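A quick aside before the break. I want you to see a complete sequence-to-structure record at least once, exactly as it would be stored in a machine-readable document. Don't worry about memorizing anything.
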Amino acid sequence: MKKLAIKSWAQEDRPREKLLLKGKNTLSDAELIAILISSGNRQESALDLSKRILQSVGNNLNKLSKLSIEELLQFKGIGEAKATTIVTALEFGKRKQFEENQKIPKITSSLDVAKIMQPLIGDLEHEEFWVLYLNNSNKVLAKQQISKGGLTATLVDIRIILKKALELFAIGLILCHNHPSGKLKPSKSDIELTEKIKKATFTLDLKLLDHLIITEKAYFSFTDERVL
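That is the input. The structure line, written in tokens, reads:
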């Protein structure tokens, strides 16, 4: 069957024209991607190719955002320029979500912390350990990556945590690290590290308010679960 090029469609059905005529909210995910890549291959239009790419990840944009340049290049019709365009667009979306979550004026619950940190570390394939530094009103003064590790662990230097807290004149700390495995249950080492940091902060009149284990879709709060 001969491919029907987008240019031969009715104008209102072309993704770019549809965007201009009817607005961005009328476009499907596949149509938005078709605009990004602008052309397909000899067998597929840009829209058909976009649909195939989405189908490969179960029509899940979050999973699509995890595809590497190399993985996108496996689709016929996707070269480096198109692959980088897709990755860039999805990264912008992720950063927009992160910026919106940064508008939280102060921390009132573990959910506020999760909203800040999930876009940052929730979908990583390696572990990272971060600390949020708070003032006396529970407003976030800063967030800092303390360490970056492998698939199942990361080393944490407590001196770095305390040094930053003193520099900021912080009052409270919230620890955060991710579990790439998706498991929320804290390990023995997670609990031991939390207790060690709690003792260290106590000597400096700092408050360890919580420790969150972050995954892509959920989180575990040491305070909520009465582990801390």
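Two observations worth writing down. The chain has two domains: 6-99, 105-221. Residues 80-101 form the longest helix (22 residues). We'll return to this after the break.
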